[in-house]
Structures are given as structure tokens and as C-alpha cells.
Amino acid sequence: MFTPLETFIAWRYTRAPRRTQFISLISAISIGGVALGIIALLTILSIMNGFEAEMRERLLGMSAHLEVKARHGPLQHWEQVARELAAHADVVGVAPFVDRQAMLTRYGEVQGATVLGIDPNRENLVSVLGARMRQGSLAALQPGRFGVVVGRGLADSLRLTVGDDVTLILAEPLRTATGMLPRLKRCFVVGIFEAGVQEYDTATIYLNLQDAQRLFRLTDGVDGLHVKLTDAFLAEAIGRELFAGAAPYVVTDWTAQHANLFRALQTEKIVMFVILLLSVAVAAFNLVSTLVMVVAEKSAQIAILQTLGMTPRRVLRIFMTQGALVGATGVTLGTLGGVLLARHVEAIIAWLEATFRFKILAPDVYYISHIPAQLEVSDVALTFVYSLALCLVAPLYPAWLASQTQPAEALRYE
User: Fold this and answer.
1) Secondary structure (3-state) at 412
2) Are 103 and 148 contacting, i.e. CB atoms less than 8 angstroms apart?
3) Are 163 and 207 in contact (CB under 8 A)?
4) Domain spans of the chain?
């Protein structure tokens, strides 16, 4: 397609003379439309990548990479299993847990919650709960005191603060001679945490492991072990390696625990990519109107070229080359602009917020109060390839129309 003669003529047609500067303006608008569409596409994809990475980091900070449970009933002799796991080179920490459901009530307000019994000393090896404390400390979960650490959202809904008491209603009732009675336990709030994940902040409380074992009648057993690894993305492989053929255990990695969330985020990203790519397609097909006007304006010159021996195939190449030049310029400018904007979008938004004194994401409303961005090479490559393909398809009809020009008809009134 890009032979010297056709390229030279296409370049001359793109740089329209003074009397037809309107065509040059339309070409510039087409280039700008393609570039703006690509800039928007790359920026939005980068922001979505940033939010996904931020959500993954917060989830992995609060949940373990691997969860080991007994196939039937509580996990007995968990200390031995924990020692065997800790001996693996890729295991950073192991902590026992009790995971049950209960309800909290205070002054007539009732809220369902997940009760997690933990060992405060071991928990710091597998999660960042200690670093997420906003009031109190994780060390205050002493055995026998029945202190609880609650999430910020749960504390707000029940109007709790450190030192308040709250009643825990257990799911297993108490059987008496007079019938079934609910089991109640008075607990005291010793800390409030904020994980930045709704699942934890609004529906999770932490209790000392020994207190949880007493409440749920587990004696020395636990519901399972949380395991943290050196690399979260090796969780599935290491889980199979550690428990290959281990029938008494059930191993779940973090990708399975939060599969629906990350699948939804990936689906949203794909849908957004398609929607924004359609805007690039609209801008790319503006090239059709530009080239149709060029063909109409240059019909006499096309006829002269044909009388000089230029074949319809070479005429088609001229206008395909012109469309490719305009489209490639827009795609290149848009890709460069999109990469620059995506890499500096956080700084730009921070400057806008400081200049106009407003917050796009208010910290008292949203868990993520800033707009993160993470540019991925694969997104840039896919955007460049698909956009360039659209810009190469758009000139097909105008180029074919030019190749069908009849010299006698075009020169009749010249």
C-alpha cells in the first residue's frame, strides 16, 4: 500500500490548498476525535486497574492467602499442622481462627455479624488488622475478658465506642427444662478498626481465640488456619503442593474466596473497554466523511491521473494511504497523550482538588478517598492495535469510491 508515489499524492491531498482548507480542518477534527477517544480509553482503564489493585491489596491485607480447614468438624491438633505449614519456605505466617455467625444487640438495635476468634499475637503474621486499628489496640483482646474489636461501620450503626458493652446473641440456643432459650453473652468493645472493605467494616467482629472456643464449645479445636505466603499469586500452586492427597483437609485460596468480586471487576473493565472503543470507532469513521469530501473535490485530478495510466488499484491505494496517515496520526497522538495522562492522573486530580478546594471522593463517604491509576502495557498495546485497525477499515469505502471514478464523466465539465 505505502509505495512512494501513492504516499506522496496522499500526503499532498491531506495538506489541502488554501481554497479547500475546510477539508484540512475536517482532517484535523478526525485526528483529534481519534486521539481524544484513545486518551479517555487509556485513562479510564488505568483508573479501573488502580481501583482493582487497591481493592485486592485491602482484601489480601485482611484475609489470608490460604485457608485450611478440617473436612469434618473442628480442626483438632492444629498446633502440629501449623508447625508443619510454617516450615515451608514460602509460608510467612500461620494463625488459627474460629469463624461463626452471631448477632449483636444494643439498646434495641440488632446487627448480624461474623465472629472471628483470633490469637492477637499470631494474627499480625497473616493480616494487617493491627495496623488498621482506629481506636484501642489488638493486644487488648485478652483471654477471659470477652473483649471485642468491631469494624467502623458496625460501630457507627450500633453507636459503639471503646469501653461500651454489647450483647452477643449466639446462633446455637440453650436447651433447658422449660424449653429453648437464646444464648447471650455480654462483651466489651476494646477496639475499632477500619479495613476499607465493607465486608469487614460493617459485618465483622474479632474475639480472643480462647473466648471464642468457650463460647462456641470447641474445647481445644479451631475452625481452621490462616496462612500467609511470600507471593499471593502462588497460593493455588502452593496449596496443592502442601496438601496433595491430604483427605482430612479442605484448602481454599484467596482467589476462590473472592472470586465473584474480582470476576465482576474484570467484567466491568471489559464492558468499559468495549464502550470506550466504540467512541474511538465513531471518531475513526469520521474519516469516511473526510475522505468522501476529498474524493468529490479531487475527482478531476483523479481522472487526470487515470488518463496518465494510473490504474484503479493504485487510486484505491492513494486514499487508503491518506486514511491510514490521518488515522495513524490520531492513534499515535492519542496513545502518547493517554499514557502521559494515565501516569500523572493522580497528581492532576490532587492539584485540581487543592486548587478548587473540593474532594472528588469524600473520605467520610468512600472507603477509597483518592483515585488510583495503574497503567498496564497490555492495555496500551490492545488499545493501539484495535484503534489502528478501525482507522484502517474506515477508508475502505471512500477509497473504493475513488477507484470507480470515470475519467470521461469527471472531466466533462472541466
Assistant:
1) coil
2) no
3) no
4) 4-58+262-410, 64-254
Say if residues 127 and 63 touch (Cβ distance below 8 Å).
yes
Q: Tally helices (H) and strands (E) across the chain.
A: 16, 12
Question: In terms of DSSP H, where are the helices of 67-151?
Answer: 78-86, 120-123
pLDDT digits (tens, 9 = 90+) for 290-301: 777 777 777 777
Kindly state the percentage of the chain with pLDDT values over 70.
88
Nearest to 338 by CA among 298, 304, 291, 373: 373
pLDDT (tens digit per residue) in 234-272: 888 888 887 766 668 888 888 777 777 778 878 888 888
Whole-number Å distance between alpha carbons of 40 and 265:
19
Determine contact, residues 84/144, Cβ cutoff 8 Å: no
Largest pairwise CA distance in the chain: 112
Global pTM value = 0.72
Using DSSP's 3-state secondary structure scheme, residue 185 falls into strand
Cell digits for 249? 483437609
pLDDT tens by residue, 134-191: 998 888 999 988 899 999 889 988 888 998 999 998 877 777 666 677 788 899 999 9
Task: List beta partners, residue 147.
Answer: 188
The one-letter amino acid code at 413 reads: Y
3-class DSSP state for residue 258?
A: coil
Alpha carbon distance 305, 309 (integer Å): 7
